[in-house]
Amino acid sequence: MSNSTYTANGENGDQGSTEGELNEWKQRPPYRVHDKAGDFEVRYEGSCHCGKVRYQLSREKPLDAKFCHCTTCQKIHGAPFQWAAIFHKDDINFTHGHHDLGWYESSEKTCVHKLPCKVSCAYCRTPIMDEGRNMILLFPTLIDFKTPEDRKNFDPSCHMFYTRRVLDINDGKPKWTGINDSSDLIADSPQDAVNELKRKRQDEEQDKSKKDQK
């Protein structure tokens, strides 16, 4: 670990080692520790409320950012909605707190590390990210933005599960009844987004019809 950027607090018997059977999960993204001599360019830093879990991000802009109004996000975050940014698993580098991470798989309500799952600080319980099978969803409120421009890089593109909202948000962004691009847009969405979805659905129907005729 001499070249690693990872630092452990020494609690729970974890001294920062990545060796051994019990530490195999630390070798896989998003938990794999990047070496200082590697090509990981640090653009942002984030942490939980107590500071035991800290991480770095290398990507300037997330692949996407969204507001989610589903009831699961409302309950787990204790908030009207969740603000999440999507990253590749290799875009994150944990520098502190591997031993202070806890997992929760919401469909089976288990703390076993089973994907997809929710990751939080086991000490202060701050939600750190949602880990999917291929991507991670990070929460921008944990990131220490240095400039307004950095913050703007994480502006959400849309709202999901907006029909389950607990308050109206008139921000002019597309508002989906479920997952974006896989559900319907509600009337409050921008007209150009509604028209684009209508054209997309029509093209899909035409393609399906042509395939059925063959």
3D architecture notes:
The structure is a single chain. This protein has 3 helices and 10 strands; from the N terminus they run E-E-E-H-E-E-E-E-E-E-H-E-H. It has 214 residues and is of the alpha+beta class. Strands 6-7-8-9-4-3-10 form a 7-stranded mixed sheet. A 3-stranded antiparallel sheet has the order 1-2-5, with no helix packed on it. The longest helix has 23 residues. It is globular and about 55 Å long. The N terminus is likely disordered.
Keywords:
globular, 214 residues, alpha+beta, 7-stranded mixed beta sheet, 21% strand, 10 strands, 3-stranded antiparallel beta sheet, 3 helices
Radius of gyration: 20 Å
So how many helices? 3
- CA(first)-CA(last) distance: 61 Å
Percent strand equals 15-25%
Largest sheet: 7 strands, mixed
**Order of adjacent strands in the largest pleated sheet:** 6-7-8-9-4-3-10
Low-confidence stretches: 1-15
